[in-house]
Design brief:
The complex is a heterodimer of chains A (192) and B (195).
Chain A (H helix, E strand, L loop, with lengths): L1 H20 L4 H12 L4 E6 L2 E5 L5 H8 L5 E10 L4 E10 L4 E10 L4 E3 L8 H12 L2 E3 L11 H6 L8 H9 L16
Chain B lengths: L7 H5 L7 H10 L2 E3 L10 H5 L11 E3 L7 E4 L5 H13 L5 E5 L1 H5 L21 E3 L6 H17 L4 H7 L1 H12 L3 H9 L4
Parallel strand pairs in B: 1-2, 1-3, 3-4, 4-5
Helix pairs in contact in B: 2-6
Classes of the chains: A alpha/beta (192), B alpha/beta (195).
Bound molecules: iron/sulfur cluster.
Iron/sulfur cluster binds next to α5 of chain B.
């Protein structure tokens, strides 16, 4: 009996906690409204005009479609490389013109097979951001027809240079030669 | 042969050797600049060309056509992608042509020296006549560099275009090492159908 009761109490507490956490401002109301439609997500208010969501990767497209009713502009797609956790964190930055609120939608994808559906059909501008994220981190956006070398040279593109395990100094040495003076791996401090 | 290679004018018109000092003076007083701002140093160009520093009093003029220019300002860091364009543009400028490199980035990579996409030593790929150190050089420093290149033109020391001709194999080898063999055919021909 005890074992059956305990989880219920905890669940209630958690729910209450979440409701308490959201302040009674337009940001809080926005978060609550979205979370009602998308119960799989977690949301919080960071500060005035900044809100944040965490979404599992399977639902990210549904969530963004829901969010796009309020958030008309996709500002940027950025990727954070969590090397130790072997994950990429993809962050969609949204801006709501009608509410003046900036939202970050975070999702985590595995590092060895980084795949996400494209959001070009929601915000056409996503094409450019996705190409950029693809080029620098190697995330594959399924459905984006123009993934490929875009800003980088083909040689750099193969390596995805903003990944944390990209050996920058080794690459520099390989490509530009070893005959420039300040390059020395054994140094701990470099003087510019 | 060496005598003929001595200077562009003597090479073309032997009998006008008498006027050589005049031509050098005229060249120094009418530098036209390819308007090709390649890095942060491009920010120095607007004050340099407008009323405050007013570089036109030296007879210099920004000019968007490489076919009618003498002076190529490389204003900052150079990535391999830009370098391809720089080389093609440089080769389109008629001789004699001069290069001023702004800032520490073209000299040795500057603050980007361990970055994967900044060329560390520009002088390996194209000949530089005057390098202005600093990050970024003030317009005064740029004007000092300009004075320097004027002095060098008049005394005949600004011979980058000659060095490029004579050591073309070496420059070409370095370029090919960086971009991969056949980059002119692959890339440049896409931009310029006639080369
Ligand atoms: S030297 Fe400084 S100002 Fe010039 S291109 Fe490099 S970083 Fe920019």
């Amino acid at each position: 009996m005890d074992m059956n009761e305990k989880p219920k109490v905890e669940e209630k507490e958690v729910q209450e906690m979440e409701v308490q956490k959201l302040p009674d401002t337009k940001e809080g109301r926005l978060v609550a409204e979205l979370l009602e439609k998308a119960p799989y997500a977690e949301g919080s208010v960071r500060r005035e005009r900044r809100i944040e969501f965490r979404v599992p990767k399977e639902e990210v497209k549904n969530f963004l479609r829901l969010a796009s009713e309020k958030f008309e502009i996709l500002l940027q797609i950025t990727v954070v490389d969590w090397l130790k956790e072997s994950e990429f964190e993809v962050i969609y930055q949204l801006w709501s013109v009608s509410e003046n609120v900036h939202a970050m939608v975070r999702t985590r994808i595995p590092r060895d097979d980084p795949r996400l559906p494209t959001v070009m059909d929601i915000w056409p501008v996503a094409e450019t951001y996705e190409r950029e994220a693809h080029e620098f981190f190697g995330v594959i956006y399924e459905g984006n027809p123009r993934l490929g070398p875009f800003i980088l040279e083909p040689k750099e593109y193969e390596k995805h240079p903003l990944r944390k395990d990209f050996n920058m100094l080794g690459y520099v040495k390989m490509v530009y030669g070893e005959d420039f003076d300040r390059y020395d791996e054994s140094k701990t401090n470099y003087v510019i | 042969m060496s005598e003929r290679n001595d200077d562009f004018i003597t090479y073309e018109l032997q009998e006008f050797k008498l006027f050589e000092p005049l031509f050098r003076w005229a060249r120094k007083k009418s530098l036209w600049i390819v308007a090709f701002c390649t890095g942060c140093g491009g920010i120095e160009m607007p004050p340099l060309f407008t009323a405050r520093y007013d570089i036109e009093r030296f007879g210099m003029m920004p000019n968007p056509s490489p076919r009618m220019a003498d002076l190529f300002l490389i204003t900052g860091y150079v990535t391999p992608k830009t370098l391809k364009r720089i080389i093609i543009t440089y080769e389109m400028i008629p001789d004699p042509k001069y290069i001023i490199a702004h800032g520490s980035c073209p000299i040795n990579g500057g603050v980007y020296w361990d970055s994967y996409n900044v060329v560390k030593q520009l002088d390996k790929y194209i000949p530089i006549d005057v390098a202005i150190a600093g990050c970024m050089p003030r317009p005064e420093a740029v004007m000092d560099g300009i004075q320097e290149i004027m002095r060098k033109i008049e005394s005949g020391e600004a011979d980058g275009w000659k060095r490029y001709r004579e050591n073309y194999e070496w420059y070409r080898k370095n370029q090919d090492e960086l971009f991969g063999e056949g980059w002119r055919e692959r890339d440049a021909r896409r931009w310029l159908a006639w080369i």
